[in-house]
Specification:
mainly alpha; Na+/H+ antiporter like fold; two-stranded parallel ribbon; two-stranded antiparallel ribbon; 3% strand
Length: 441
């Protein structure tokens, strides 16, 4: 007797209700933070290209700190190495949640976003390396066009007033989470220098203590804040980029509630609730303010297209991310026999892949690490800004073209005729409002 054919899973279908609530909360904060990020980037660009650019450079390069502890840094480096640690801490919590209860919790649900994200990192790096090889440039910036800036991308969608379905936004969020992990691994492995084994051993010991505090359910910020600062300082002095400490602590924090004690929120949830506004509204915008202030004169823009390194960054962001993410998603869907949501089309996935070419925050960070020479990093930053702008413009055209379809899907997805806070589509499904329909993407 022949067995029944295996049912094809649905890709970009309706999210389960609990996951949708969590995703909506994260997307709302990232969108607001992205708008602040855009404003900070505009201020930096305007300030750096006016007669008052000298005051911008003086503030950016002003040093302060504690020299005895090896922490005498410029304002720009405090923003990159210090404030962005908060951003990566939140990213670590997001990744942990995705691994425990989100789209990365099983091989079946993780296959598509992970394959898409990996292809979206490998192809841009390959395009950069090809460009600099042909042009006789330096290969050190291969990682610059690898990462997606989710806050910037969501801000673009907010400015466009689009009604992109939650599933598409959630897929973009998961892509960005995996991207962030890839970026921090690249920074930790490939961009370390002058390693200090004693300091790194101290940082590792601090992480072990952090884990034990979580393991034995120790509560109280007075334990974790001083310990976290010590781990960060030791990581920085150890020669590894200090933001790695943020990701490590985020991955250690528990994101599942303790049922035995009736815990109303896990440590990860509480930390994310407190730190996400700081990350999105303060840390990332301040980093952008001191990292995005580059000259956009005609000679600089001309060198973006004539020098192999910045040209490789632009091509990697605009072409590499699009080709990598779209091809990776398409092939993974075919390999896993996933069926695209019939209400959507592969053109929607392509538009999302183009939007993922916005690589602002982490691309600027890697650019600073990979190109320590101020003259070189200025051209790389200009390339990141230009590439992200081109990706945003192309994505805007593609998304706007389909916005009528998105609007109808969004209205159906959010219709709540009895005004009880739960969309009607979840009540009509077998899963009910508590769990929602099962997503098998």
């Amino acid at each position: 007797m022949c067995s029944a054919p295996r049912e094809r899973s649905v890709f970009l279908g309706l999210l389960p209700w609990p996951e949708r609530v969590q995703v909506a909360r994260a997307l709302r904060a990232e969108t607001v933070g992205g708008l602040v990020l855009l404003a900070a980037a505009v201020v930096a660009l305007v300030w750096a290209n006016t007669p008052w650019s000298g005051s911008y450079e003086a503030l950016r390069d002003f040093h302060f700190g504690m020299p005895a502890l090896g922490l005498d840094l410029s304002v720009e480096h405090w923003a990159a190495d210090g404030l962005l640690t908060i951003f990566f801490l939140v990213a670590g919590i997001e990744l942990k949640r995705e691994l425990v209860a989100g789209g990365l919790r099983t091989t079946a649900t993780a296959a598509l976003p992970v394959v898409a994200a990996v292809c979206g990192m490998v192809v841009p790096a390959a395009i950069y390396l090809t460009t600099v090889t042909v042009g006789g440039g330096r290969a050190g910036g291969w990682a610059v066009p690898m990462a997606t800036d989710i806050a910037f991308a969501l801000a673009v969608l907010a400015v466009l007033s689009t009604h992109l379905p939650t599933a598409l936004r959630a897929f973009l969020l998961t892509l960005a989470v995996v991207d962030d992990l890839g970026a921090i691994l690249v920074i930790a492995v490939f961009f370390t220098s002058d390693l200090n084994p004693a300091a790194l051993a101290g940082a590792f010991a601090g992480l072990v203590v952090f884990y034990l505090l979580q393991r034995f359910r120790v509560r109280g910020w007075w334990w974790y804040v001083p310990l976290g600062v010590a781990i960060w300082g030791l990581m920085y002095n150890g020669g590894v980029h200090a933001t790695v400490a943020g990701v490590a602590m985020g991955l250690i924090l528990r994101t599942a509630r303790d049922q035995d004690t009736g815990e109303d929120a896990s440590p990860g949830e509480r930390a994310e609730h407190l730190l996400r506004p700081v990350s999105a509204g303060v840390a990332v915008p301040l980093f952008a303010l001191f990292a995005a202030g580059v000259s956009v004169s005609a000679p600089v823009l001309g060198e973006v297209f004539t020098r192999p390194e910045p040209l490789g960054v632009v091509l990697g962001l605009v072409i590499g991310k699009t080709v990598g993410i779209f091809a990776g998603t398409y092939l993974a869907a075919r390999f896993t026999r996933a069926q695209l949501n019939p209400d959507l089309a592969w053109a929607d996935v392509f538009a999302l892949a183009v939007l993922a070419g916005i690589g602002f925050t982490i691309a600027l960070l890697i650019g600073e690490v990979a190109f320590p020479d101020p003259a070189d990093v200025g051209h790389i930053k200009a390339a990141v800004l230009l590439g992200s702008l081109l990706a945003a413009g192309l994505a805007a055209l593609l998304v706007k073209r389909r916005n009528g379809i998105y609007r109808s899907l969004w209205e159906a997805e959010n219709r709540d005729e009895d005004a009880d806070g739960i969309p009607d589509v979840y009540k009509h499904s077998a899963g009910g409002p508590a769990s929602g329909p099962t997503r098998n993407d």
